[in-house]
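[Solved] Which block belongs to which protein?

Original post:
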Amino acid sequence: MDDPALDAAAHDQALAGLARLNAWSRSHWLLWDGVARHAREVNATGRTLRVVDIATGSGDAPVAMALRAQRHGLKIEWTLCDASAHALEVAATRAAAAGVAVTTVVADAIAAPLPCEGDLVTCSLFLHHCDPGDATRVLAHMAAAATRAVGVTDLDRTRRGLALAWLGSRALSRSAIVHFDALASVRAAFTRDEIAAIARTAGLAEVSVRAAWPARWTLWWTRP
């Protein structure tokens, strides 16, 4: 899916397959508690929480959280960023169908600082596409754009994670791209110790990295 020459129809099929895989694994909710806590704190001051989600893909995670926030009466403004204009079109369509208002911004979080800022800057299941140097740049760019906190979730490189990726990708998608990427992603993912070290190199001191089901980790950093 990282191939810029990927056919649009194949890209759409892969995005849909990954959305089903993310929903099955409940990846949407790994950052929810932190997002909700910050929303309550900011809403208590009379302000709407601003969340920037980078490498958003089809936007399935932020749209799912936006719907949950609406049910809980939390006021959140969502900005979705991705290097792929096509992915953002899919994300905008998904959000509109769900009745969720979003702003979309084409932005490559590896190549340059983000062109927007938020109270929170979040990222789900993207850093396994990065080598350590690129991951360091992404986290540094996220921190620079966040006025309150950074939240990240991704795959944990474990044998159990590899087995679950094989099973889930084949059960939930016919896309050969998803079948390949699911296994390649786990093999390329960072362990919890590795991502903690990368975050510190990026300038995110006092970072918290915790294990999450299934074979995931979550990282939170709060601006001092």
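(Second protein starts here: sequence line, then its structure tokens.)
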Amino acid sequence: MTDKLPGAARAAIGARLKAFEQAETERILSSCTRCGKCFEVCPMTGYSKAPAAAAAARDVVGGVLTVLRGVQGSPEALGWIAVCCRSGICVPACPEKVDPQMMMRLARMTALGGRGGAKQIAMREDPDFFDRVRAFAKLQLSDEELKHWT
């Protein structure tokens, strides 16, 4: 759709998008207390390299914030970023109203090198894709539907 817009319009949209990303990143970095509640409720943590302990949750979330700062993230944080399926379950769990779903989306963009920094995770075939689909389905399907589809 944007390929049909004049160059100046595309540039303006791109500039507004970058400004939004930067403002959201700054808001998240200033608001997040690293409590780890988003990590604790995330259905995908079992598919990442991150440990599940509550104490580790603070460290993993801290690692995600490090990625947002443009610094190399920990393997645990990058593992969680890589498997995030954006289920949104983390959003109501956040006591600070940070919007962890947006935090993870921006972290993934950053880790993939899409915001101008170094690439920290590779875009590749995901061998755990179907396991993650099953996990996500469990969040949305009834027990009867699960018996039929999984």
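Accepted answer:
You had them paired correctly. Confirming on the second one: The mean pLDDT is 85.
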